[in-house]
TrEMBL record:
It comes from Methylophilus rhizosphaerae. This is DUF4116 domain-containing protein. Residues 6-54 form the DUF4116 domain. InterPro entries: DUF4116.
């Protein structure tokens, strides 16, 4: 099966038809931002998100749960970058 690998093309395609996520490269199916674009266009595109991402997405409310996942990921990254490397706080946050 041919997989779309150009990110700009995939973004445009998903903006017009979220179900095109099915044909996106695996890395794009695992990208929360691209999956969110697909979900906003067509909620049924959930089924084409990676299995890994689907673990974090509530099927009853996929858009809100994915937004929450993205926010937590960004917060974790921000905190990780601001704290000293030897901090015990980083170790406890990383276990989340």
């Amino acid at each position: 099966m041919h997989r779309f690998k150009d990110k700009e093309f995939v973004i445009k395609a998903l903006s017009k038809n979220g179900l095109d996520l099915e044909y996106a490269d695996d890395s794009f199916q695992n990208d929360p931002y691209l999956v969110l674009i697909a979900l906003l266009q067509n909620i049924k595109s959930y089924q084409f998100a990676s299995e890994e991402l689907q673990k974090f997405i509530n099927k009853d409310n996929p858009i809100d749960s994915l937004i929450h996942f993205i926010q937590l990921t960004e917060l974790h990254t921000k905190l990780h970058n601001q704290l000293p490397n030897n901090s015990t706080q980083i170790k406890s946050i990383s276990k989340l």
